[in-house]
């Protein structure tokens, strides 16, 4: 996942410490994943949303764990953590970037 993220974000690439951020996300998602007992791909959204148990099982479906981890990790880094890894030495530029996001 780190390799893929670095390839998709060459302006930042991989930096030391990103693995620790990803590790927290991985632990959280694997602790909450659920092995689905139904095939939710064949159900419509209204029927899934109307049953709380189905909705939870759909959201935490273990088939999508890796995609969910990657998306969450990317969102965390895009939200501003990515700026902590930039080579910018001017703190005023960094502040402007963080405030604009």
The coarse silhouette is elongated
**What class would the helix/strand composition place it in?**
mainly alpha
**So how many helices?**
6
The overall average pLDDT, rounded, is 85
The major β-sheet equals:
none
User: Low-confidence parts, pLDDT < 50 over ≥5 residues?
Assistant: none
Overall number of domains = 1
Q: What percent strand? A: under 5%
SSE order: HHHHHH
Oligomer: single chain
How many extended strands? 0
Q: Helix fraction?
A: 55-70%
Termini Cα gap: 24 Å
Rounded to an integer in angstroms, the radius of gyration calculated over CA atoms is 18 Å
Topology of this structure?
Blueprint lengths: L1 H7 L9 H15 L12 H6 L1 H8 L5 H20 L6 H10 L1
Helix pairs in contact: 2-5
Note down, in words, how this protein is organized.
This protein has 101 residues and is mainly alpha-helical. The chain has one domain. It is 65% helix and 0% strand. It is built from six helices and no strands. The protein has helices at residues 2-8, 18-32, 45-50, 52-59, 65-84, 91-100. Helix 2 runs antiparallel to helix 5. The model has no long low-confidence stretch (mean pLDDT 85).
């Amino acid at each position: 996942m780190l390799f893929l993220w670095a390839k998709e974000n060459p302006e930042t690439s991989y930096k030391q410490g990103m693995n620790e951020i990803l590790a927290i996300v991985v632990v959280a998602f694997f602790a909450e994943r659920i092995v689905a007992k139904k095939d939710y791909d064949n159900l419509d959204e209204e029927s899934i949303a109307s049953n709380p148990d189905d909705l939870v099982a759909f959201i935490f479906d273990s088939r999508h764990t890796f995609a969910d981890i990657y998306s969450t990790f990317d969102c965390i880094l895009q939200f501003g953590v990515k700026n902590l890894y930039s080579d910018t030495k001017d703190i005023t530029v960094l502040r402007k970037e963080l405030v604009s996001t």
